[in-house]
Amino acid sequence: MFPQLLNDSRAFEIAKALLEGFNRHYRLFREASAAAKQRFEAADWHGQQRAQRERIVFYDKRVDEAAERLQSEFQAHRLPMDVWQQVKLHYIGLLTNHLQPELAETFFNSVTTKILHRSYFHNTFIFVRPAISTEYIENEEPGSQPTYRAYYPNKDTMREELHRIVTNFQLQCEFDDLSRDVDNILRAVAHHFGEIRFRANFQIQVLSSLFFRNKGAYIVGKIINGFRETPFALPILHNSKGRLYIDAALFGEDEMQMLFSFARAYFLVDMEIPAAYVHFLRSLMPRKPRSEIYNALGLHKQGKNLFYRDFLFHLRHSSDKFRIAPGIKGMVMLVFDLPSFPYVFKVIKDFFPPQKDTTRELIKSKYLLVKSHDRVGRMADTLEYSNVAFPRARFEEELIAELKHFCPSLIEEDQNDLVIKHLYIERRMIPLNIYLAEGTPEQIEHGVIEYGNAIKDLVAANIFPGDMLWKNFGVTRNGKVVFYDYDEIEYLTDCNFRKVPEARTEEEELSGEIWYHVGPKDVFPETFQPFLLGNDRVREVFMRHHADLLDPAFWQGHKQRILAGHVHDVFPYDVQKRFTRVRHGRPHNGSGSNGLLVGDDGVPETDGAPSTSAEA
Length: 616
Prior knowledge:
By secondary structure, this protein is α+β, with helices and mostly antiparallel strands. The chain contains 19 helices and 22 strands. InterPro entries: AceK_kinase, AceK_regulatory, Isocitrate_DH_AceK.
């Protein structure tokens, strides 16, 4: 029971210290996000990517600082339960008019669970459910920026209003030809909507902050006409002359889902009221969980919190059992799922076969690399949890036996609960090997082409997957192939791509053993063939579209360009949507799926089109 009196003076001081810790965190988070505009204007692409990586660790640093303060000033770990209950009540009071209450509640949970034993973690102490509503939060101070701006064009003023939508962001760079870009948008609108009949409520709502990621800045909003609401996004890029241009007009929920995919890096967005942004974005993508929207905005701890709440809710309203996940079992990870829940749970095993020369800490570092790197739509985001208590009765006995055999150090069990001390959670996909084995000829062709495109996108992002077997890739619900097995992942620039040496003797040629020296980072692309192309139908499609992946020169060329400072263009939308499809009278030719403009000499073109750098 909560105390009837708030009679311990320490409780208010602790609550205030906790909120001060959160406010410092969010101020630094906003500063990093706001600075993305200046980096974009300066075309500082490496700085933009560095900021995306560094911002990920902000939260944990502030949690550590707050926990240390509570320990040193209040000996927090020694305080009795009734004091902590008072701390929570004071904290709720302090959040009444706060602009980020849901994030502050999550910060409270993170700090206090770092200090105290998990036996304290129940609803009367931490925020299992939100205590403060996030609906209709507004900053009432004069001069504060609204969450979104509304524009009311008619048939005669549409061009003028589109121009105003873009210029209201006050980017400190010239547009190459904004009138041309507005013409392109109007043509795209006409193509998507046909003849527009303007209803009384016709308006365009646009979020007040730009969304920055790598080299792109995105205008995000929706068009409202009568009962119809259509999401849209306008990507803004730099050309080779340092001027801006609008590259495409994206319409509809599916396009937005691709832009905000769980397989892409987090956006940098300056938001005073994040819940209002999430509410607006959810209206554009109603199928997307709020947890994934928070993740996409860089608020991944809040995403984790919401995901866990959704998970507990699902457990209460389902009765199926956790099982060993279908597919080929991994050598490093034990993977299980709940059939009714669209995610998989991955636990690092305590021991590995001899061919896997790795450790638990090294594997965790690989997953952190993926979390902080540009995932270019080809690497699944992961949620990392510690000390997760599952109802033991919901586990199949075969799964419990596997956990006890392969992961005994990570398992605690009593009559009611099975606690897993560390695990990762990812979106469930169809393993590519199963997709190819069960697919029609058309699906097989699509899967193989997408597989090669996925690898080429990863290469463009300086990632070598390591283990390229089909089973380590999955197919999403929209048919996109995504990589999800990270224990052998490496930076491309750390690898040495070599051609297999010619045999010097007949004995060497006939030998079943490798007779040449292989260094720890050596990769021989020719040797991929026996493992990938045993199926004739798969082989035919692969060799037609992606034979270059078997050539060391392909890998070496990309490595050299990355080392020279080149950052590739990888577009989070279909390159056919781009307004710059034709340059110099020649059709646009994609390099893999990464949308590079390639000239007659094979060199990416940038004259008046995109500069030779990362994601738009």
